């Protein structure tokens, strides 16, 4: 990650989010083939992968400080973006431990963790946080353990209790979501919170996905990519704020399409948490404007083909109807139709 | 082949609880063992160079520092060798590899009250439950059933527990009045049970008869895969043939033949080892597949199930 010590990005008007060339090339482009349809695209979350964003347990990039600041602003405006039910107490500590252990070992230059028995001390050099506390004693932290840690990590996190052969969304912090709401989904089962998704249920994907996740083992996390498109670099496209961002969708023109339209990719990782037997679902959001995708020939050609041929039901569900034709029309001249290598790597 | 997952340990202490029960304390050789949730099991791998055994046991306790893990092993009469090996040769210093750790029998954290019913070795998952429930101030009761000659051993095992919540019985559940106690439980109670098959069947039938909702009844079948008639599997993708001997499981035969077959609990309880059957008739012995899946005959759990036919063709 390039050095960054101050808030540079703005995820609200006036928007300003600049991606360095390094950030563009490490982007988890979500289309391994020229066609897109739902699939069980789950693979082990092992370090390394076709793009750099997959090379750490939790990816930290040049937008870390800006995203953490945006998260803090959203939480100040709407504290219920973070909710955890009381029976998830052990899962909160599991999460804090996983976050601190992995960040401090993956990025020792930015995060330091020292442990002496249950006496821990944590330093986050990027956010200037220094905290000594007793692991397992929430009174020694300024915030509940889950909230304390999730505020210091990019992306959204949900905690799932496992009971009755199902996973229940019994906690989370959700501030960079693609039009779904923790307040609405809290306490729901796996099938309940997936109910709005078209087609996948009849394809049997949720049955297989749930069965797979119920057997998720500690130490063997898995990952998948999901995607949609967002107008302007807004992390927070929540139903609660639809009146703020919804109209953006009607603002795309041939002139501003490359600047305004962003491919929004979620690097989703899932972990079995050891003390609680809960499942952590981490949703790390990447926003990449068309103008930056244009700099990678393979990606711009593939994005053109995928959007051109996308199933209309999926396009509607993802909220692309108002601007998809404009994007396809813009990309068409830059796709020579040549065959592309399979996989998401940039060449 | 993926990197081998797990933790090297060796036996630190052995205690004889009864003629058929031994407690083994395993000590981590390298890094500390991860925390475990109550009800978890560990797959232990051990042997003497001639044969490697892989058996799953409930984790009775993990020490606070993560350096020690305790299991209790019952000498199984129909043992294919694993529990006999541990009872005869499981001395301090014996290396034991901890493979997968997982939980198929977790505490329901949203329950208002927990009723724990165990018989014999079925006490093991509840030993980890009791510690947790006591520490969080949960409402719970344990009834444990054992033979008269084993009573003192179980009394000793439970001596540190809250004696107003833990009861040991030497009579049969039907004789001591368990059905009446179950009837008196409130609608919010969750029932958990673990023990030999006869006990499991009795509790299953009794809770069903008394109207307990299926979502409030939880059980763990501890299950030692039994041998059976030898058979042969044909691996469709390579055309290879692998023989399964009378005293080994299909999964073990596949592993010996270096086939990368999926697996987790090795006891027919999790479903991770499911493989597609392309020919032949499976002899299902698991607790996972639905009746419809069994009847279809096109999937098999390799860790416990065998074949009714002389050959099985698998999609491997």
What can you see in these coordinates?
The complex is a heterodimer of chains A (347) and B (316). Chain A is of the alpha+beta class and 347 residues long. Chain A has one domain (21-334). Chain A has helices spanning 21-25, 64-77, 89-106, 145-150, 182-185, 190-194, 205-214, 242-245, 257-260, 290-293, 297-309, 312-317, 324-331; strands at residues 43-44, 82-84, 111-116, 119-124, 129-134, 156-163, 166-173, 222-231, 261-272, 279-289. The radius of gyration of chain A is 20 Å and the shape is globular. Chain A starts with 20 loop residues before the first helix and ends in a 16-residue tail after the last helix. Chain B is α/β, with parallel strands linked by helices and 316 residues long. Helices cover 20% and strands 33% of the residues of chain B. Chain B has helices at 82-89, 124-135, 151-157, 173-176, 178-184, 197-209, 250-256, 291-296, and strands at 7-16, 21-28, 40-47, 52-58, 61-62, 68-74, 95-103, 113-119, 139-145, 166-169, 189-194, 217-219, 231-235, 241-244, 274-279, 282-283, 299-301, 306-307, 311-314. The longest helix of chain B is centred in the middle third of the chain and has 13 residues, at 197-209. The chains are: A alpha+beta (347), B alpha/beta (316). The interface between A and B is medium-sized, with 21 and 22 residues.
Task: List the topology elements.
The complex is a heterodimer of chains A (347) and B (316).
Chain A: H1 21-25, E1 43-44, H2 64-77, E2 82-84, H3 89-106, E3 111-116, E4 119-124, E5 129-134, H4 145-150, E6 156-163, E7 166-173, H5 182-185, H6 190-194, H7 205-214, E8 222-231, H8 242-245, H9 257-260, E9 261-272, E10 279-289, H10 290-293, H11 297-309, H12 312-317, H13 324-331
Antiparallel strand pairs in A: 1-8, 2-7, 3-4, 4-5, 6-7, 6-10, 8-9, 9-10
Helix pairs in contact in A: 11-13
Chain B: E1 7-16, E2 21-28, E3 40-47, E4 52-58, E5 61-62, E6 68-74, H1 82-89, E7 95-103, E8 113-119, H2 124-135, E9 139-145, H3 151-157, E10 166-169, H4 173-176, H5 178-184, E11 189-194, H6 197-209, E12 217-219, E13 231-235, E14 241-244, H7 250-256, E15 274-279, E16 282-283, H8 291-296, E17 299-301, E18 306-307, E19 311-314
Parallel strand pairs in B: 8-9, 8-11, 9-10, 11-12, 13-19
Antiparallel strand pairs in B: 1-2, 1-7, 2-6, 3-4, 3-7, 5-6, 13-14, 15-17, 15-19, 16-18
